[in-house]
Structure formats: structure tokens, C-alpha cells
Amino acid sequence: MISGLLFARAMPAGSWVAFCAVVLAAISALLALKKKTGLWLATFAASTVLGFWFYGTARLPTQPTSDQLALPPREALVEFEIQRVMQAENTYGNSTGVARVIDASPTSRLKKGSLIYFRLSRDDTTRLNIIRGLAIQVIGVLHPIPEEAVPDSFDAYLQETGIHYRFEQTGGVRLLREPTAFQKFCHHTNKKFQDHLRLGEPDASQLSQIYIAMLLGEKTELSDEQTDRFRMTGTMHLFAISGLHIGVIATVIWQVLLLFRLPSKVRPLIGLPLLYFYVEITGGAPSAVRAFLMVTFFWVSMAVQRQRSPLSALAASAVLVLIIQPLQLWQMGFQLSYLVVISILLFGLPLREVLWPVLRPNKFVPESNWSTYAKIKFWVMDKLLLLVVISFAAWLASAPLSAGFFGFIAPYSVIVNILLVNLAALVISGGVISLTVASLGLGGLAGFLNHSAWVGISIMDGLVRMNLTLPWAIIHCPEFPTIVSYLCVLCFMASIILIGNKHSPLLRFAVPPLVVIFALTLGLLWGSA
């Protein structure tokens, strides 16, 4: 599937590709019936590659040529529908976000369905409620984004998401279509939740900004200093609604449904709509949708009494995401999220299974004879080991891409994330409970819960600040080659899969980290040469 999409990005497929894909799929089906496994697998793989080559050609947007991006800015009349709001209103009274083009003047070089980054001026004559789903017609200036954008810049991020033009309003705005009632409701609920999370806020405190950013994904609430602090320590993922947030909230919802003793087949019918509502309230970010799909597949497998497989749920969510939005394959968020989870499942959790029998306390004492202290020690060591291996596996998968695309390596993030992820999970859980009781009219209790969350946030912020004061906390590597990053990830994953259970545990769990350390060292030397 991925190979087919890569082919489509590099070279559009002709009709002959679709014909070959259909023929190979038919042959594959016949071979499957005859139980010829080897030939069936080969023909199925070939038909899949060709099929997604053709599918990618039809679905992936056509990239502007270098000559088109070199043209000067020009005025254009553009009709677009807002897909994502980045800033509803900044300090200069402007609104920014991402929109999909409905129609544009012929001289604009924009095609229907393409994405643009917009900036609207919010004067009194054009004061619209800028939310997802709003369709408007605007006169403005179209600025091409340079083809060679600076790595880790905002322009580079826009290019990753398939955006090649900035659009700045210079003229009037005409309303084409209002957002749907559901989109308006989600926007209203988001604003209401922000007020709930500010209940009991101390004067001159910036903790509520971090709180709102963490619970609702409103990263614009963070100051520039806070953003830089969390980004440089490799902990900015705490403010992107993703697997951590969806996982914690899904766990809270599931536990509440268990308290009501609902049948396993009924729980997903109640829990998934609530979880999807949260995804929509927070803006429907791609990372949140990916995590929601993974939870959906996992919960559905539990409801139908199938064997639960996180890896299968992960693969199914990735396939569905790429079918719906194939362009996500080139987005760093997609690559990081799936690589990190794969690393945790194939390296981190198996490493725990090997280490736990060795480190397990009270090995020679029957569990019935354990004292309270022994039970607490057992529980703490079990959870601590799980956190260590998860954080280590996540760092191994993310460090090469962080070096190549963001220009820094955070060696201590392995330790910092162990503490921060736990604190963040407590803060998110407390925030969900606070929003629930505030919605029921219990503002005083919600304010109390907010204070307890702010204590956790204060500790988190202090840990991040302390981390930045340590020597070698951040290794800057702006010239780290991206080719080394991808080769490192490929070799890391290959070493995990190829070694597997066939060799000794020492070899199985020593080689992958050594591959990453060697590649990072090579990239640093290459970049400094």
C-alpha cells in the first residue's frame, strides 16, 4: 500500500496499471482458493501495489511545478471551506487556518479541492464566526510557499500537509454557506469547556493556558516561551490531541461503563460516540482521528469476542486513514505516531516480558504471604518497568526523525517523558472529570479539581525547566541528513523484525538500540563535516 502511494507521488499511473491490478487480484483470488500460499501472497502484494498506485494517482493532489511556485504573488478571488482553525483571533485581530478550495479565479493557479493556508482580517465589516465548515468567498493575495522551505519551519509543515500557497485577505468577504448545526455545537462546546477549565484560576497564572492546551489541543493558548520550552525537550506531543489523550479518555469512559455493568457489546455503542464527540470538539486533528480509529477497531474486536490485537487495530487504522487521506503518508505526525506505537508493541513490551522475570520482586515468596509493603513494591516496580520500556521504545523510534526534521536530539526525554506522561494522564483524567461536573452545574467542585490539575501542571512545567538546565539536555543538529533519519528508522524496524524470537534476548534487544545510536552518531558527524 505504501509503495503504491509512493509510486503515485513520483509518477502518475496510467489506465494500464488499473487493468494489471484487476487481473492480478483475480489471479490472487484463484490461487487463494487453490491454497497456493506462496503464489497467492506474491500476486496479492503486486495487485495491492498497483491498485494503490492507481488510487493514489486519482486521490493525491497535483503538486505545483517549480516554475509555478517561482511566480510572484498575485491577487485572486477564492471560494473556500474552512477545514481547520489555527487561530480564531490573534493579538492583531487576524484569523488563520487551513481551507479547501471550492472555486478560484483562473489566474490564481489554484485547483478545486486543493488546500491553502489563509489569513483573514477581522474588522467590524467582516466579523464572521470563523469555525470549521464555514464557506466564504474572499478577495486576497496568493503567496506561493518556496519549494525549498527551511526545515522545521512553518512553511515546511504546510508543505508536509499538501499546502503550497498562503492566502491573505485584502478585500471583502461574502458568506457562501454556514457551518452545520453539529459543527456550531462543537465550536460552542469548545468555548464552554475553556471557561470550565478556567474556573478557580489564580490571578496572573499561566497554568490554565497549559491546561487548556493539553485538554482541548488549543496550542495557541501557549506563550512562545512555553512552546519553545516543551518543543525543545521533546514533550510538545502532550499538547497535540493524539494517542495519549484519546487513550486516557477512552480508559475513563470504559471504566465508567464498567461501573454500570453494561454488556461488552453495548459499551462501544455508547463509548465511541462520546469519544468521537471529544475528537470533534477539539478540532478533529488528524492525530486525534488516527487514535480514535485505533480505539474503534480495538473496542469492536472486544465487542464481537474476537482476539484482541493492538497491532491489528493499528494496521487497520493506518489502512483506513490512508484510504481516506492518502496525503497523510507524507506528514511527520503520521509517521511519528505509527512508528512510535509499532516500536512500543514490537520492542518495548517484549523487552518488559524478558526483564520482568529477572527484576520481579518477591520471586521466592508465595503471593498469599506478601505483606502490604511487598504488594506495593510489586505494583510500583511493575508499572515503573512498563513506563521505562515504553518511553525507551518511543525514543528509539522518534529520535532519528526528530534529529533529521526538527534539528535536535533530546537525550533526557526518555526519563522526562516517564514522569511527564504519567502526570499528563492524571491531569487529563482530572480535566475530564472537571468538565463533567462543571457541565452538571457543580462549578465549585470543578474549580477544586482544576486546582489539583494545576498542581500537576506546575510540577510538569518545573521538570521541563529543570531538564533544560542540564548539560547535553538538547543536542542541536540542524544539518542532520534526513536520508540518515529514514535509513535509521528502516534499519531499526528491520532489526526488530528479522531478529525476532530466533536469537538470544541479548541480541534481540541490544541490536536495535545500537543501530539507532550508530545512526545518530553518523548523522551528527555527517552534518558537522
Automatic annotation (TrEMBL):
It is found in: Cell membrane. This is ComEC/Rec2-related protein domain-containing protein. The lineage of its organism: Bacteria, Pseudomonadati, Verrucomicrobiota, Opitutia, Puniceicoccales. It is a multi-pass membrane protein. The chain crosses the membrane at residues 12-33, 39-56, 238-262, 274-299, 311-330, 336-355, 384-409, 415-442, 480-499, 506-526. It holds the Pfam family Competence. InterPro entries: ComEC_N (IPR004477), Competence_DNA_uptake (IPR052159), DUF4131 (IPR025405). Residues 214-499 form the ComEC/Rec2-related protein domain. Keywords: Cell membrane, Membrane, Transmembrane, Transmembrane helix. One of its GO terms (cellular component) is plasma membrane. Residues 14-167 form the DUF4131 domain.
